[in-house]
Write a structure and sequence with these properties.
Bound molecules: zinc ion
Helix content: 40-55%
Distance between the termini: 46 Å
Shape: globular
Structural class: alpha+beta
Strand content: 5-15%
Strand order of the largest sheet: 1-2-3-4
C-alpha cells in the first residue's frame, strides 16, 4: 500500500471527501432524469462487470449497443419513437397491437410473445445454466461426509497461528453440507417435463423450477427463478414468496425442513442479489462473479433475440449459449 493511499493521510481523506460529494451530486442528478434515472431505482441488483475486457471481448458491438440502450430505456420502442418526434402516431406493438408499447412490454409483458413462449424460452435458458451450477453444488455435497450439527467441539478452536480456511467455512454454512443423499429435479422440457415433488413426500400440482431433497435429513429446498424487468425484481421476489408460502408450510407440516430460495435475473441481464445469496447458501465454491456474469449474459442475450424479433410474428427458439456453456446444449 502506498503512503498516499493510506486512510490516515490527509490527501487520501481529502480525495475521498471530494469523491463522495461528487458521487452524491451525480446520484441526485441521475434520480432527476425521467428515463436514465430509472436505473437508480433498481434495488437488489448486484454490480455488473463493465470492465474493458468484458465490454471489448465479451459481447458483439450490436449486443453492447443493446445492453447500454436497454439499460437506459433508449431503444427505439414505439413509445420512444413518438417521444422523440420520429412519428406522430402511436405505432403500437407489432405483435399484439397494444398502444403505447414500451420496452417493458416488448421484453416482459407482450401477450403474443408470451403465447409463443418467448419469455419461457429465456427463463429456461437461464434455468439451464442455473441448474448446471446447482448440480455442481449437489455433486460436491454428495461426495462429502455429512457435517453434524452442532459441529464437533474441537472445530470451535483454532490453533495458535492458524486460521479457519474459507472453504471449510463455506461448506459449514451450506444448506447441503449436512447430507450426502441429495436428489434434484428441474422443470426443463428436455429433462423432467413432468418432474414434480415426489408424491410420497407431498402430493401437489405445484412445480418450483428446481426441487432438491435429502431423505436422511428430511430437508427440501425449492429454487424458483424469475426474469422480470429490473425495476420489478423486488416485487417479483415477493410474489414468488407468496405463491409458494402454502407449499412450504405443507412440507414443514409433514415434518420436513423446507427452504424456498427465489432467484431473480433481470431481463436486461442484471442479476439480482438473491442469486448470489442462493449460491452461497448452496455452497458454491468457484468464482461467484464468473457464474453470475454468465447467468446475466444468457438473460441479456435472450432478451436481445426477443428484441430483434419484436416485429416478427414467427418464432423459433435458438441456442444462446457460448463456447463456455457448450455442454448445456
Ligand atoms: Zn405486444
Amino acid at each position: 500500500m502506498s503512503l498516499l493511499s493510506r486512510p490516515d493521510r490527509p490527501r487520501s481523506r481529502a480525495i475521498s471527501f471530494v469523491y463522495n460529494i461528487d458521487n452524491d451530486k451525480q446520484i441526485v442528478h441521475l434520480r432527476s432524469l425521467v428515463k436514465q434515472g430509472k436505473i437508480a431505482q433498481w434495488e437488489s441488483v448486484i454490480a455488473a462487470d463493465f470492465s474493458w475486457n468484458k465490454l471489448t471481448f465479451g459481447m458483439s458491438q450490436c449486443e453492447f449497443s443493446f445492453m447500454v440502450n436497454a439499460m437506459h430505456n433508449l431503444l427505439p420502442t414505439p413509445d420512444n419513437l413518438r417521444l422523440w418526434g420520429k412519428t406522430q402516431v402511436d405505432l403500437g406493438c407489432s405483435l399484439c397491437s397494444k398502444s403505447n408499447c414500451t420496452l417493458l412490454h416488448v421484453l416482459n409483458h407482450c401477450p403474443f410473445a408470451l403465447s409463443q413462449r418467448r419469455f419461457t424460452w429465456r427463463h429456461d435458458s437461464v434455468l439451464r445454466l442455473l441448474n448446471w451450477a446447482v448440480l455442481k453444488c449437489v455433486d460436491a455435497a454428495n461426495k462429502q461426509t455429512p457435517r453434524t450439527w452442532p459441529p464437533p467441539i474441537e472445530e470451535s478452536f483454532i490453533r495458535a497461528g492458524e486460521s479457519r480456511s474459507k472453504s471449510t467455512t463455506k461448506l459449514e454454512d451450506s444448506l447441503l453440507s449436512h447430507a450426502n443423499d441429495w436428489r434434484v429435479i428441474v422443470d426443463l422440457p428436455e429433462k423432467n417435463w413432468r418432474a414434480m415433488i415426489p408424491v410420497e413426500i407431498l402430493s401437489t400440482l405445484q412445480k418450483p423450477d428446481i426441487v432438491m431433497w435429502s431423505r436422511s435429513t428430511r430437508t427440501m429446498i425449492f429454487l424458483e427463478l424469475t426474469c422480470p424487468f429490473e425495476e420489478n425484481i423486488t416485487s417479483a421476489a415477493k410474489y414468488k414468496l407468496g405463491r409458494y408460502e402454502k407449499l412450504v408450510c405443507r412440507v414443514r407440516a409433514r415434518g420436513w425442513q423446507c427452504h424456498l430460495l427465489t432467484l431473480e435475473v433481470g431481463s436486461r441481464g442484471f442479476v439480482g442479489a438473491s442469486c448470489s445469496r442462493a449460491l452461497t447458501q448452496l455452497g458454491w465454491r468457484s468464482s461467484k462473479s464468473t457464474i453470475l456474469g454468465r447467468i446475466g449474459d444468457i438473460a441479456r442475450r435472450c432478451s436481445y433475440v426477443i428484441w430483434l424479433h419484436r416485429k416478427n410474428k414467427t418464432w423459433s427458439p435458438i441456442s444462446v449459449y457460448g463456447e463456455e456453456e457448450s455442454d448445456l446444449g
